[in-house]
Amino acid sequence: MTDDDPLGVLAPFAGRWVGGGDGHYPTIDDFAYDETIEFASMPGKPFLMYVSRTRHSTEGRPLHTENGYLRRAGDAVELLVSQPTGFVEIQRSRLTDGVLDFETVVLERSPEAKPVHELRRRFVLDGDTLEYDLWMAHAETPLTHHLHAQLRREK
């Protein structure tokens, strides 16, 4: 990263990340999944395009996908996410020692989407390892840990 790099603190996130994780929630059976996350840069722009794709680790069937952007926003970092299940979200954090502890700014859902009413995300970048956790509040279930994954930078 150079001083004139428009990505600034986001530059270390750029790349393709591959690995797996575990999901659990009080209303579903536990599951394991494989995931690919891509943070793609566009020359001269202060953001990374974000794409996440997951598959069931033993059955291989698609589980979830989401798209968006990881962008610089003044001294903060924003994660903008759109999900085909009818959700859009804006999460905001400061980057501290490779950690992004996002707080929800906006979470909106379409009238037909499931009743998710809170999400929290955390990314931890350590060299070529990216870990993340996601917490979710759904229907009558309060904010509860849902996903944990560990991904490695694909070289």
Automatic annotation (TrEMBL):
Domain of life: Bacteria
THAP4-like heme-binding domain mapped to chain residues: 7-153
Pfam family, one: THAP4_heme-bd
Database matches in Gene3D superfamilies: 2.40.128.20
SUPFAM superfamilies xrefs: Lipocalins
Name listed for the protein in its UniProt record: FABP family protein
Protein source organism: Rhodococcus chondri
